[in-house]
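step=encode ok
step=design start
structure_in=
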C-alpha cells in the first residue's frame, strides 16, 4: 500500500483495522500540514528547510534504531534518490508559496489533482495502461481546478493555482519514480535521506538567519515532528 506515494508496509502482526486507522491518521496529519505555511510569516524555502531538517533527524534515527539499511545498491539508485529528493523539494516549496499567496482552499484543490496526474504518468513508465476513464477523470479534475481558480480573482490567484498544479505534477512524478526504482528500500531510511537532501539544498535560505516569531519556534518543532515525521513514520 502507498500513503501519499510512500510505501505503507502492512506487517502480519498488524491487523487490517489497525493498518487502516494508521493510514487515515497519516492522511489527516499530512493534510493538516497545509495550514502551517499561513501561520509562519517567513519564506516558503525556510519553512521547508526547517521542516525537513527536523523530520530527517527523526526518521533516520528510527531507521538506525530499527537497523534498516542505509546504503544503496548502485549509483543508479543514488541518482534516482537525488531526482526524487529534488522533485519533493520543488513540490513543497511551490505548494507552500501557493498556499501563502492564494490561500489554503485553492492550494489544496489544485494540489490534490496529483492522483489523476499519477494515473496519466504511470503508463509512460510501463506501470499501467491508459484508459478512456482516466482521461475523462483528468478532464473533470482540470475543470474543477479552473472553477476554483476564479478568472475574475486576478493574476495572483492564477499564479498560485499554477504553482500548486506544478507542485502536484512534481509530487506525482516523484511518487511514480519512487515506486518504480526505489520501492525495495526501507521507507524510513529513504524518506529520511530525501528530507536530509532537501534540508541541505535549502541551507542557503536560512544562512542569514530566520526571523520567526518567538512563540512560533515550538510550533515549528510540532510541525516537523507531528505533521511531517509522524505521518511518514
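sequence_out=
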Amino acid at each position: 500500500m502507498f500513503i501519499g506515494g510512500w510505501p505503507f508496509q502492512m506487517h502480519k502482526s498488524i491487523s487490517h483495522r489497525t493498518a487502516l486507522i494508521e493510514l487515515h491518521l497519516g492522511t489527516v496529519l499530512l493534510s493538516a500540514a497545509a495550514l502551517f505555511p499561513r501561520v509562519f510569516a517567513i519564506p516558503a524555502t525556510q519553512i521547508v528547510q526547517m521542516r525537513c531538517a527536523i523530520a530527517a533527524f527523526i526518521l533516520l534515527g528510527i531507521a538506525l534504531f530499527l537497523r534498516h539499511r542505509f546504503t544503496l545498491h548502485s549509483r543508479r539508485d543514488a541518482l534516482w534518490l537525488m531526482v526524487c529528493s529534488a522533485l519533493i523539494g520543488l513540490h513543497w516549496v511551490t505548494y507552500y508559496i501557493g498556499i501563502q499567496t492564494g490561500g489554503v482552499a485553492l492550494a489544496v484543490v489544485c494540489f490534490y489533482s496529483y492522483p489523476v496526474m499519477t494515473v496519466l504518468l504511470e503508463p509512460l513508465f510501463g506501470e499501467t495502461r491508459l484508459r478512456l476513464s482516466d482521461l475523462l477523470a483528468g478532464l473533470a479534475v482540470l475543470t474543477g481546478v479552473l472553477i476554483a481558480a476564479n478568472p475574475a480573482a486576478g493574476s495572483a490567484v492564477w499564479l498560485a493555482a499554477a504553482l500548486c498544479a506544478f507542485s502536484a505534477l512534481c509530487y506525482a512524478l516523484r511518487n511514480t519514480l519512487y515506486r518504480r526504482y526505489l520501492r525495495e528500500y526501507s521507507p524510513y531510511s529513504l524518506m529520511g535521506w530525501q528530507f536530509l537532501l532537501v534540508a541541505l539544498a535549502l541551507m542557503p535560505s536560512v544562512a542569514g538567519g530566520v526571523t520567526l516569531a518567538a512563540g512560533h519556534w515550538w510550533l515549528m518543532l510540532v510541525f516537523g515532528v507531528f505533521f511531517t515525521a509522524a505521518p511518514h513514520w
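step=design ok
step=annotate ok -> The chain is about 70% helix and 0% strand.
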